[in-house]
Amino acid sequence: MSKDKLIPELRFPEFINEGEWEDKVLSDVADRITVKVGEQKLTTVSISAGIGFVSQKEKFSRDISGNQYKNYIFLRQGEFAFNKGNSKKFPQGCIYQLNEFKEAAAPNAFLCFRFKSIFLPDFYKGYFDNNYHGRQLQKFITSGARMDGLLNISPNNFFNIHLPTPTNRREQQKIASCLSSLDELISAHSDKLEALKDQKKGLMQNLFPQEGETVPKLRFPEFEGDGEWIDDTLGERGDFYGGGTPRKSNPEFWKGDFPWVSSSDIDEESINNIQITRFITEDAIKESATKIVPSNSLLIVSRVGVGKVALTQKEICTSQDFSNFTPHKDEPIFLGYYLKSLKNTLLSFSQGMAIKGFTKDDISGLSLCFPSKKEQQIIGSCLSALDELIMAQSKKIEELEKHKRGLMQGLYPSVQR
After folding, report:
1. pTM
2. By C-alpha distance, which of 98, 102, 153, 105 is closest to 121?
3. Is 254 exposed, middle or buried, given 0-12, 13-18 or 19+ CB atoms closer than 10 A?
4. Distance between CA atoms of 49 and 95, rounded to whole angstroms?
5. Are residues 147 and 50 in the same domain?
């Protein structure tokens, strides 16, 4: 885009000769909503960054409006609200359109508005999704400019954010339709992702025996006549390795070749995804409690993130938040999914006031049921293949969202204010 003219980098062919967009501010294209709820009984809502409107009962497990309810703002479907609370994705606050409820009561700290009839809301959503408002509001936020946990942004500053607008309403519609079709595609792929996750959840509930049972509810046909699984404790099936953290005050410890992970590096969903970003030296291992965990071992988070389990394909070191296990009698991938299915059991072991967790002795005595290695292989392969589909679907959604962000940057002029 030219720095002197409000013309986007990308433009649909039929609008190339339409000329410069108009320099509108929000108050030009939308009206502020200040009508209070009063005595009307409506669903009280809040806004979650990255999600949108949710009921307060869903977000906070209760309605938190209290005595302020009468002062909440009466919001109708299709209208917008600016939440001044900052988040990682929207550090200057986020704007969402109310679509989930026909009518709702929005906190009076929100700045609410509706677009005037000659302007298309879906066109301006592209600005909000790409945080155009945030980049302009940033200059009004200082390090101490917060009130009651909210950014101290005045209505005047907010309603003066610049939103360049095509003079031809059909161009607004064309851009809105383009982005809307992308949103529908992303939504369809997101639904498919959730369906895959639900399928995996259902399989994990049925491919492993439930408490008090010795066979699973669901069994592959070739193993239906194999009888009950063998009962044994985890400690009898392999070896445990602890973890530790080398001194961070010694930077030389963190310049080695041995990968080292903490619980935050372990994926919440998959056992096959470990983010390795830190490496330590032999001296770091010798002078700390961490150990070299063999390949084909299970990294079991026993504190700060209990329930996470990962399978390592290489030798690795971990923090003290792990009780790592190397199986000698079982297929590691089978056992990884088995333990992953027992998240509630692992959580029940958690104890301690400050940092809840469990010890090696707790999990060593865990009683499990084990089928033949062949059946273990089939179960592990089935769930691993499903995880690969989930990972591929997640990546597809990320690529579509990246494409949308790039498209929005080209379809809308930059706001340099």
Report:
1. 0.82
2. 98
3. middle
4. 9
5. yes
At 151, list the tokens.
């950014």
- Contact predicate 121/55, CB 8 Å: no
**CA distances to 317, 338, 363, 381 from 312, in Å:** 10, 16, 19, 16
Instruction: Return the pLDDT at 347.
Output: 82
Domain boundary among 140, 163, 186: 163
241 and 149: one domain? no
Residue 293: CB atoms within 10 Å? 26
Which residues 6+ apart lie within 8 Å of 382 measured at CB? Answer: 203, 207
Pair (149, 240) in one structural domain = no
- The residue segments making up the domain with residue 41 are 24-163
Q: What is the mean pLDDT of each run of 10 residues along the chain (417 residues)?
A: 72 93 96 95 90 90 89 96 84 91 94 95 93 88 52 90 94 95 96 96 93 91 93 94 94 95 92 93 94 95 89 95 95 96 83 68 91 97 96 96 93 75
Q: Would residue 75 count as lying in a domain? A: yes
**Does 379 fall in a domain?**
no
Question: Residues 226, 281: contact at Cβ < 8 Å?
Answer: no
List, in sequence order, every beta strand (DSSP E) within 286-343.
297-300, 309-312, 317-318, 324-327
Tell which phi-psi region holds residue 176, choosing left (phi > 0), alpha (psi between -120 and 50) or beta: alpha
Alpha-carbon Rg for the chain in angstroms: 27
